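Fig. S4 source data, part A: sequence.
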Amino acid sequence: MRLAKHLAHAGIASRRAAEGLIAQGRVRVDGELVRDPARDVDGHNRVEVDGRPLAGPEARVVYAVHKPVGVLATARDPHGRPTVVELVPGESRRLYPVGRLDADSSGLILLTNDGELANLLTHPRHEVPKTYRVRVAGGPVGERALSALRTGVELEDGPTAPARVRRLGGPGRGSKSAGKSSSAIRERGGEELELTIREGRNRQVRRMCEAVGHPVLALRRVAFGPLRLGDLPAGAHRRLGEAEVEDLRRVGRGL
């Protein structure tokens, strides 16, 4: 097994983050400093990170978490701000968040010690869909704005891929299709949209909506691949079953 993959399976970091640890000279194999993430290792090799030997691969786990606004989607914060990892108290394994979700946004995020799965779900080439419900300003959302979102929006870092977009409602619309998970957004006014994208750029949905004249007032992720947020309360978590994890793995592989 390649060294970077071995570190990911041991729960040290995602595969890409493990490659960074190796490049930084923080990993030794049988006492030798190794900078090649493709170095083959097996159960007979002694692997150390920052001078500490790895234990055997730990059992993999995946949690669905409903991140509230104000909580950071990181494993730790040097300024002591709350992080999503703290929403799964009592878990001794080293968990990492999967995917971006900024502090001003809420909704579904995954936590796992499975670096291979994290890479499958977040690498751009895998194009795993993510669905968001957003409340936007700027008045009623017209067909021109919807068409732009559906065909691709020009941003400062290049055009976006087409998004799936549908209206859910707003003042005067009274949409029944929005469901319970969007009621809190509707109560504060503004029109609500549902967008599904297959990219993962920084604050992408917010920037797309602003580019078509409708700044986002509130944003919640309601689906990650086949997994739905459902009625999981804000701040709560649940461990995914084997079938759910396998569904995520299949969509990450494009199956």
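Fig. S4 source data, part B ends here. The chain has seven helices and 15 strands.
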